[in-house]
Structure formats: C-alpha cells, structure tokens
Write a structure and sequence with these properties.
With about 80 residues, the chain is mainly alpha-helical. It is about 75% helix and about 0% strand.
C-alpha cells in the first residue's frame, strides 16, 4: 500500500539531498603538492580537470550516503507496513 504523503516526501527528500550536497560539496580541498602529484598520476591536463572529477565523485558519494540515510528513515518511521 502506498503512503498518502509518499510523493510529497519524495520531492522533499530530493530537495533535501540537493541542499545537503550543495552545502557539503566544497569540502574536499587538496594542497598544491598533492594536487600536482594526482595530476601526474592520472595524467590530467590541469587543475580544473582534477577538481571537476573530484567534485563529481564527491557529489556521487554524498548522494549515495544521503539516499541510504533517507531510505532508512523512510522505512523505519514512515512505512505503513508493521
């Protein structure tokens, strides 16, 4: 049976995940030495390419963590099945 507020909470959950991701997205910051070492290791052209890849991976990791947390909360406290 579908919960009556499921579509509203799904949209709210997506917005919450986007908000949390945007707030936490700038978290990874590499030092110049480590960034240059990673650029040499992965054969990247410049720092922009490195940080683009780094932020994409960071966003995916945060999104996956937030998805599992919200799914746990939804199933734990809002599920109709007892």
């Amino acid at each position: 049976m579908k919960h009556p507020l499921e579509s509203l909470l799904t949209a709210g959950g997506i917005l919450l995940m986007a908000l949390l991701s945007c707030l936490l997205l700038p978290a990874p910051s590499l030092g110049l030495v480590l960034a240059q070492k990673m650029m040499a290791t992965f054969h990247l052209v410049d720092l922009n390419q490195l940080y683009t890849i780094l932020f994409c991976l960071w966003f995916l990791v945060l999104g996956a963590i937030e998805f599992f947390i919200l799914r746990f909360v939804w199933r734990r406290w809002f599920s109709l099945a007892s």
